[in-house]
Design a protein that fits this description.
Blueprint: H1 21-28, E1 32-36, E2 39-42, H2 44-63, E3 67-68, E4 74-76, H3 77-83, H4 85-88, E5 95-97, E6 103-106, H5 111-121, E7 130-139, E8 154-164, H6 167-187, E9 192-196, E10 207-214, E11 221-225, E12 232-234, E13 257-260, H7 267-274, E14 281-289, E15 292-299, H8 306-313, E16 318-320, H9 323-333, E17 351-355, E18 364-367, E19 373-378, E20 389-391, E21 410-424, E22 434-436, E23 442-444, E24 446-453, H10 454-464, E25 466-467, E26 470-471, E27 482-486, H11 492-507, E28 512-514, H12 521-531, E29 535-539, E30 548-552, E31 558-561, H13 563-575
Parallel strand pairs: 3-7, 14-18, 15-17, 17-20, 27-28, 27-29
Antiparallel strand pairs: 1-2, 4-6, 5-6, 7-8, 8-24, 9-10, 10-21, 11-12, 11-21, 13-19, 14-15, 14-16, 18-19, 21-24, 22-23, 25-26, 29-30, 30-31
The structure holds adenosine-5'-triphosphate (ATP) and magnesium ion.
């Protein structure tokens, strides 16, 4: 490819809405162009990268015994009603109607469709296990599309679904996919950590996410991990053992009584005023879950984790209540209290979820829906809660102890590039997707599902491999392997050697670009670095001595070599991809 013809317009500036490196660089280097919020054109360079990621995924999935198919992007409501998700899936589901008024959705994922395919085609245990996958665009009307390709509304995903006759076979396939994922991300030049995770709207029990670890904002997930053992979990699933804390207030309070706590709105103010550790305060938080207020109770030195709370409440959508919503709740309950003084006492017709930390608390401090006072020396039984629902809704913090080996946990951030789920019979049962076992009995398939974000993986590779000048693509997924740069296109010798090198590379199957533009060398080098060619062969003045410059983008190493050596280095590297 000639640089003068390559469809790429590098930009001087980063786009105004770009917050993370991969978005900034992919836009500036001319890989992507935004069409509308969360929807991007994949321009020729990007499409080359995406096809490479797809092909690595395809090869490893095929090698693992999975079979590729392609399902439609538009899906009918009826199948989603069968699974029960038409009502249950939140605002991310993009719903539409055809000209006959029939309701449809744009596929955010394909469990319903694949389960319907399986139930018509997999009738006997002899046909199982089977793993079917596709690589296709998905649409999710994400609440906050952001970070370019990392969280789009339209994005490309590889989704695979396995069908088995036993849990044992599902376990085997789960491991098989785990290995395939490890191979895939290694081949894409990405180090990943497999972490335990919540299975969310998709359902099921066991699941792991493959995370690219990063210390930047692009990592939307907090990952807690142990350096001593293999424990690693997303914050929405992590558990920990807590260090000792004072949870019995009997040495502070001799009586269960109401005391004045003027202007103590925050936990800090209250613990300072009462001269007690915050572990003796019961914190009452109001969330809105599926439009209804829910109260969460937790030891005040700890934070609530929203996904855990959402799961405990059995909801789909969660957010913290606004001050106005808390005011409204207080009005409806007949109280007049502001945040800081709220508590479970006397609350009617509201779901209350109590964190497990509260089980051990005795003689504690709690708000009683009256301003400027708290009850001290209180116990949960005294508060008249209709039904105490205990759950783990606590956000783990670094330094708390590993649930497996007891060593302190660490925290880092991760980009989820793929995940694997054991679905069990979550879809096959309601959709009556059954096979006949050896005794002729109908049984629902035991399913698994396995996703990889193709577009997100490419963007994560940029997050993991770049410097201030641009992208440093791993060779396996770079749009081109090498750029040949004649310093002066007007110099006949430089131009003819550059052309020879270029032709030789092409005839050896190397994906090469020659920068034939009549531009200053500085401009050419800048573009080469920004676009991120893994290798650059520069043909300049030294060609009169028979030498060229060979630059490795990943390390910045510069070598003066003969043209033949430069060609050989690239050919060898490409052979080893
Ligand atoms: P997340 O928690 O990041 O929203 P998810 O749990 O919704 O991800 P899945 O539904 O399991 O993810 O999708 C499988 C894969 O698809 C994810 O691991 C991720 O790589 C990719 N993916 C999911 N949502 C998006 C998105 N909005 N933009 C780009 N890629 C996505
Ligand atoms: Mg999601």
């Amino acid at each position: 490819m000639k640089m003068s013809k390559l469809f790429v317009q590098t930009q001087r500036e980063f786009p105004a809405d770009a917050e993370v490196i991969s978005h900034k660089m992919l836009a500036r280097a001319g890989y992507i162009k935004k069409l509308t919020s969360g929807v991007y054109n994949y321009l020729p360079l990007m499409w080359r990268v995406l096809k490479k990621v797809e092909n690595i995924v395809r090869e490893e999935m095929d090698k693992a015994g999975a079979q590729e198919l392609l399902m439609p992007f538009v899906q009918p409501k009826e199948l989603w009603e069968e699974s029960g998700r038409w009502g249950a899936y939140g605002g991310e589901l993009m719903r539409l109607k055809d000209r006959h008024g029939r309701e449809m959705c744009l596929g955010p994922t394909h469990e319903e469709i694949i389960t319907a395919i399986a139930r018509d085609g997999l009738k006997s245990y002899k046909q199982l296990p089977v793993n079917l996958y596709q690589i296709q665009s998905k649409f999710r009307d994400e609440r906050r599309p952001r970070f370019g390709l990392l969280r789009g509304r339209e994005f490309i995903m590889k989704d695979a679904y396995s069908f088995a006759a036993s849990q044992e076979d599902l376990d085997k396939e789960y491991k098989n996919m785990w290995q395939a994922y490890t191979n895939i991300f290694n081949r894409c030049g990405l180090a990943t950590k497999a972490v335990q995770s919540d299975s969310g709207a998709i359902g099921g029990n066991v699941s792991h996410e493959f995370m690219v670890i990063t210390d930047t904002d692009a990592g939307e997930n907090d990952v807690f991990y142990c350096e001593e053992c293999d424990y690693a979990a997303n914050s929405n699933h992590a558990v920990s053992n807590l260090p000792e804390a004072i949870v019995d207030g009997s040495s502070y309070f001799t009586k269960n009584e109401i005391v004045d706590t003027p202007n103590c709105h925050s936990i800090e103010e209250l613990s300072e005023f009462l001269k007690i550790p915050s572990s003796l305060i019961l914190k009452s938080l109001i969330y809105i879950i599926d439009k209804e207020p829910v109260m969460a109770l937790i030891r005040a030195d700890k934070q609530a984790e929203e996904t855990k709370l959402l799961n405990a409440a059995g909801g789909i959508d969660i957010r913290i209540a606004s001050t106005a919503e808390i005011q409204e709740l207080m009005d409806n309950q007949g109280f007049n209290a502001i945040p800081g003084f709220i508590g479970p006492k006397g609350m009617k017709n509201i779901k209350i979820i109590t964190d497990n930390t509260v089980k051990e608390m005795k003689n504690f401090v709690v708000g009683i829906n009256k301003n400027d006072v708290h009850q001290v020396g209180a116990n949960l039984e005294d508060l008249g809660i209709d039904e105490i629902n205990y759950a783990d809704i606590r956000l783990v913090e670094a330094g708390e102890f590993c649930p497996q080996c007891g060593k302190p946990l660490k925290v880092t951030r991760g980009i989820e590039v793929g995940n694997i789920f054991q679905l069990g019979t979550k879809y096959s049962k309601p959709m009556n997707a059954v096979y006949l076992d050896a005794d002729g009995k109908a049984k629902p398939y035991i399913m698994g599902c396995y996703g990889i974000g193709i577009t997100r993986t490419a963007a994560a590779a940029v997050e993991a491999h770049h410097d201030e000048w641009g992208i440093k693509w791993p060779l396996s997924i770079a749009p081109y392997h090498v750029i040949v740069v004649p310093v002066s296109v007007k110099d006949e010798q430089q131009m003819s050697v550059a052309n020879e090198i270029y032709e030789e590379l092409l005839s050896n199957g190397v994906e090469a670009v020659i920068d034939d533009r009549d531009e200053r060398p500085g401009v050419k080098f800048k573009d080469a670095d920004l676009i991120g060619f893994p290798y650059r062969i520069t043909v300049g003045k030294t060609i009169t001595d028979g030498n060229v410059e060979f630059v490795t983008r990943s390390t910045g190493e510069k070598q003066v070599v003969k043209p033949d050596e430069a060609i050989k280095m690239v050919i060898d590297a490409v052979k080893n991809i």
